[in-house]
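User: Protein folding is very new to me. Would you mind checking the protein record under this note? It all follows right here:
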Amino acid sequence: MDDATRTFERLRPRLLSIASRMLGSTTEAEVVVRDAYLRWREAGPATEHKAEAWLITIITRLCVNRLRRLNREGQTFGESRLLERLVLDSSATPEQMHERADDLSVALLALLERLPPEARTAVLLGELFEVNYEEVAQTIGKNEVECRQLVHEAKAQLRDGRPRYAPSRGTHFRLLSSFAEALASGDFAALKMMLSDDAELTGDGSGKVPSFGKPLQGGPRIAQLFFAGSLRYGSALSIELAVINGQWGLLLLIDGAMESAQSHEIDGERIVAIHVQRNPANLIRLAAAPLC
């Protein structure tokens, strides 16, 4: 392995983390990182003394271009491209899992997805990765004052969209345990009671399996959907609680094969949102990971 490759491999985790959070997908992030590596090799030794800054700039520009293309094609992450944000991690310490839950919660990612590409880039780089604002401004093609204003407005938008009440992990666990029990037993009344009236269900099949093109609105409708699934599969349905992105979630299995992974947002008393991952490629990775 030559020096250029060693330098890139040293920085790869940081680059992959930036790309994953910008794109909402580890698969797409890996494609971007590979593209960045090719550009890095083509650039030659002249860039090695400023490797990290150069590569972060390339990664973010590639991601912004990718996001702009998706926007032109009418695709939005918030509706049907939840992709691979659901990641089981049994190796993390409790402190790391708590930190990731605050940093990479599904709720936060969903909010970030509603920001324009430049605003998302500025927030992630300037606030999360602590990249110099002068470099952030150069990356998104704005001056530093404009960049700081963009971040200020984006952070206000994120604060307005985040739940005011952050339930404890114990509360989250107890509510999901009850929800899983109601789903397994086909208790429609209990399912309905545990969902807020304005609850929202979103899903991702990435075009490979049937899923929801648009969010399903309303607790009673969502309860009816889960109840119908419980009746349909009967004893073939099994449910496991697992840590997903630092927070408790549910894995649904049909005859032992994983059908979906679900992440839930709660207001402390009821479930207000459910995010369902059904992309088979993602589920294979989830199934292969040891459960917490």
About this structure: Residues 76-106, 205-210, 288-292 have pLDDT under 50 and may be disordered. Residues 7 and 64 are 24 Å apart (CA to CA). The chain has two domains: 3-73+89-161, 169-288.
